[in-house]
Design goal:
With 309 residues, the chain is α/β, with parallel strands linked by helices. Helices cover 36% and strands 29% of the residues. It is built from eleven helices and 14 strands. A six-stranded mixed sheet has the order 6-7-8-3-9-10, sandwiched between helices. Strands 2-1-4-5 form a four-stranded antiparallel sheet, with helices on one face. Strands 12-13-11-14 form a four-stranded antiparallel sheet, covered by helices on one side. Strand 12 and strand 13 form a beta hairpin. The longest helix has 16 residues. The chain starts with a strand and ends in a 6-residue tail after the last helix.
């Protein structure tokens, strides 16, 4: 649905994108992760047709960016990280205004307004002035605005930015519903734990380049370093002695009868270590990889130099 190849963008002396490659499958909820200044917002603005890249190509729904601006606006809904609202408009009027901008008027526009307000749980606020809404409500109204023309692709730049925990949960549930409707959603966010609960795919960007992408489960399970919990029947001194001299091992913490450590490599390396522990008579009762969270993966890449932007 979204294909980006060797995308470049420079602001003066700052190179925001340095040959970015990215692919978002149709129907995916794609979490776009990176530190401030990594190039996330620039990428989304290019995909929305608001910025012209200095090099490379980008396609959304088969439309090349820059070649089909009118068609692109029909298939893309964009929600920026900072957005303006018209303080002297009521909530319902706000959506009708944007509906008219897409040529939607009359009974169809009124029905669309009511349906979208129901979707984002603002039906009771239809006659309220926009500036009286809370930050979370304004975010949901902006999402409704991005949906006014029923786009196939949603580009959301930090949609939960500045929201309290309850408002973030409400936004996440709405995005899940949109995913069920078949929308392809690209989300830029720093709230990693919530992306893990929502996304099907993840891409990690640093200094204008994508350093890792793929299905969420594959990304979490395919990390080159795993954290392992080892428990023994009785003291763990023998296990600690072996681990101290084992290549690729970093002991994180030791407790009576338990050691938590990081091991470079995959299943084969873990199996070899377990075999050696048993051969040396260590009474192992538990040897298992700790679940790797999206945040763990992000931090791990940062420590290894993969995310220095």
């Amino acid at each position: 649905m979204i294909k980006v190849r060797s995308l470049k963008k420079t602001y003066g002396r700052v190179q925001a994108l340095r040959g970015l490659d990215m692919e978002v499958p149709a129907g995916a909820v794609y979490g776009f992760i990176g530190q401030n200044g990594a190039g996330k917002t620039t990428t989304l603005r290019i995909l929305a047709g608001l910025l012209v890249p200095d090099g490379g190509t980008a396609e959304v729904a088969g439309l090349e960016i820059g070649s089909h601006p009118r068609a692109l606006r029909e298939v893309v809904g964009y929600m920026p990280d900072f957005f303006g609202v018209y303080d002297d408009l009521r909530v319902g009027e706000y959506l009708l205004f944007y509906a008219a901008a897409y040529g939607i008027r009359g009974p169809r526009a009124f029905k669309l307004r009511d349906d979208l307000l129901e979707l984002v749980e603002l039906g009771e606020k239809r006659e309220a002035f926009v500036d009286t809404l809370s930050r979370g409500m304004q975010q949901r109204l902006c999402l409704a605005r991005a949906l006014i023309h029923d786009p196939r692709v949603l580009l959301l730049d930090e949609p939960a930015s500045g929201l309290d925990p309850l408002a973030r949960v409400e936004m996440r549930e709405i995005l899940k519903e949109l995913s069920k409707l078949g929308k392809t959603i690209l989300i830029s966010s720093h709230i990693l734990s919530e992306l893990a609960d929502l996304c099907t795919h993840v891409g990690m960007i640093t200094e204008g380049r994508l350093v890792r992408q793929g299905p969420l489960a594959e990304l979490l399970n395919g990390t080159p370093v795993q954290t392992i919990i080892l428990r023994c029947h009785g003291p763990a001194e023998a296990a600690e002695k072996l681990l101290a001299g084992w290549p690729g091992v970093e002991v994180l913490r030791s407790l009576p009868g338990q050691v938590e450590f990081r091991l470079a490599g995959g299943a084969a390396q873990a199996a070899e270590l377990l075999k050696e522990l048993v051969l040396r008579g260590v009474p192992v009762t538990h040897f298992a990889q700790e679940d790797q969270s999206l945040e763990d993966t992000f931090v791990q890449l940062a420590r290894e130099g993969g995310l220095n932007g």
